[in-house]
Design goal:
Arc Repressor Mutant, subunit A, globular, five-stranded antiparallel β-sheet, 2 domains, 7 strands, alpha+beta, SH3 type barrels, 4 helices, about 35% helix, about 140 residues
Length: about 140
């Protein structure tokens, strides 16, 4: 499964993976409690592969940010919680991504990234961060 199949649904906690498509949207399963939900096409949904984080020079794909967290933590859960203070979250994120744009990346964004990383790590989905890179490499070789 790739990050193209993992999403965040506005108003619902955690991350979801797409299970099936329907006429009016799709069925997704929560990574937190395995509950299935129907999501219609009018819901505000963000696919993880399409999210980027502002830096001072560019927009860095979420995949690359999560890879940097994985490198810092050696594949283990983060050393902080998404429930930590704003200052703790910002200090941690500065260690992971020193050139992030502090004016456009809010503590709530950092909180989500930390929570998402820990969910992906808990469900052994961090390998999905490398799948797109491998696909891009094979496309370039052809």
């Amino acid at each position: 499964m790739s990050l193209d199949k993992i999403l965040s649904i506005s108003g619902k906690p955690g991350l979801y993976k797409i299970i099936a498509q329907t006429r009016t949207g799709f069925v997704a399963e929560s990574l937190i409690d395995k509950r299935k939900v129907n999501v219609n096409i009018h819901s505000n949904v963000s696919i993880l592969s399409e999210i980027a984080v502002y830096t001072l020079t560019e927009e860095l794909p979420l995949r690359d940010v999560l890879k940097k967290v994985r490198e810092k933590e050696n594949g283990a859960p983060t050393s902080i919680s998404h429930k930590d203070s704003k200052d703790t979250l910002e200090e941690y994120f500065f260690e992971v991504l020193p050139d992030y744009d502090e004016d456009r990346v809010y503590a709530s964004d950092i909180k989500k990234i930390v929570q998402w990383y820990n969910l992906l790590q808990k469900h052994d989905l961090l390998h999905t961060l490398d799948e797109a890179t491998e696909a891009e490499t094979s496309d370039e070789e052809e």
